[in-house]
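Researcher: We plan to redesign the surface later, but first we want a full-length starting point. Tokens attached.
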């Protein structure tokens, strides 16, 4: 539950700021339309470059695509940032925590609902021009325990007091298939790390069967994908609209996990990008955790890795994960052998700041979650 309470503004807008941003606001409708158009084009450019064979031309194309996408995001979305001041109870310690989020809201829900319990009080919402961030930092220095600044990657920060950690906001979890050599080597690693899960889906008689991505889409979306996301990640998940997801799946394959009676109990959306294979999303029938306990998702993980090897993939993309070593989703993918690298599609970075370093709750959260401060570049993969 989220409550709202009035509080003193963290940043009172200046007349000069409003005047400077007047053209920016006046063309907001066209700005957002242009943003969506360029986002679709540039993210597809990054996808094609990322999936291409490793080499000079591939890295050059990837560099240009990533740079242009970050520049477009900075100009069309990054000149003015949202400020949200919230208070609540930190989930593990049970103590009160006051935090501020500054950014374009793409990570807000994910951050807040992973830290605080459901009873959250929003103390203040507002906006701040990018060139006034230093003023904002001075105003919140002694007022809150923890600050998250989601900033364009093209910017550097000027914070020097307190504890400051910079990470990528999200990491891309990948498995370098070719580097691992023969299937026997990969299989031994999987057995070593996932022996019990592999045993479970074999004993349950689960098998992976290709479906029809067009005819079976509604069943996957309504009976598997949505229930799983809503049951586990409803507070912070970004659920794509049905039609946009349908358009995505048109160029993908849909693979089902079936039990010995032929019942479809889980599924994954698989995209063949050539040298890179992508396991884009998973779903479990009616979000029922019992199928997971029987090894339905383990069956998907094991067979997508095997499919990637059999199709001579350079890399298997396991999609994004939060950049914290002790996050459950990150740990789950890491235990299957996926490695974190920089996400080329993410135009922002995340600064985590404990302003004065004296908040034991904030410092305890940092020590417990262990933010990932550096990951390999996408160019190396």
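Model: Full-length starting sequence:
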């Amino acid at each position: 539950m989220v409550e709202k309470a009035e509080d003193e503004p963290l940043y009172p807008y200046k007349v000069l700021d409003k005047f400077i941003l007047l053209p920016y606001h006046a063309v907001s409708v066209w700005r957002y339309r242009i943003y969506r158009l360029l986002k679709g084009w540039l993210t597809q450019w990054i996808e094609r470059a990322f999936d291409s064979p490793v080499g000079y031309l591939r890295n050059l194309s990837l560099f240009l695509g990533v740079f242009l996408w970050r520049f477009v995001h900075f100009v069309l979305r990054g000149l003015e940032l949202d400020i949200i001041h919230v208070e609540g109870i930190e989930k593990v310690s049970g103590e009160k925590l006051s935090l501020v989020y500054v950014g374009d809201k793409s990570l807000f829900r994910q951050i807040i609902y992973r830290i605080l319990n459901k009873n959250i009080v929003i103390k203040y919402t507002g906006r701040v021009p990018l060139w006034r961030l230093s003023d904002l930092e001075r105003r919140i220095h002694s007022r809150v325990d923890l600050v998250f600044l989601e900033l364009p990657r093209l910017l550097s920060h000027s914070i020097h007091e307190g504890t400051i950690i910079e990470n990528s906001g999200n990491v891309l979890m990948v498995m370098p298939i070719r580097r691992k050599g023969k299937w026997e080597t990969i299989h031994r690693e999987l057995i070593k790390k996932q022996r019990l899960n592999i045993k479970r889906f074999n004993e349950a008689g689960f098998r992976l069967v290709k479906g029809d991505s067009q005819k079976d889409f509604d069943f996957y979306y309504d009976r598997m994908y949505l229930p799983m996301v809503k049951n586990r990640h409803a507070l912070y998940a970004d659920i794509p609209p049905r039609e946009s997801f349908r358009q995505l799946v048109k160029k993908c394959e849909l693979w089902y996990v079936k039990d010995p009676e032929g019942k479809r109990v889980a599924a994954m959306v698989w995209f063949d990008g050539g040298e890179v294979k992508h396991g884009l999303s998973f779903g479990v029938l009616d979000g029922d955790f019992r199928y997971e306990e029987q090894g339905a998702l383990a069956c998907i993980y094991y067979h997508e890795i095997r499919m990637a090897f059999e199709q001579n993939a350079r890399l298997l993309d396991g999609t994004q994960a939060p950049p914290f070593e002790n996050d459950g989703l990150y740990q789950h993918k890491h235990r299957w052998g996926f490695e974190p690298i920089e996400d080329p599609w993410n135009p922002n970075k995340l600064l985590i700041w404990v302003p004065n370093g004296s908040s034991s709750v904030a410092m305890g959260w940092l020590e417990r979650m262990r933010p990932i401060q550096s990951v390999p570049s996408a160019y190396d993969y």
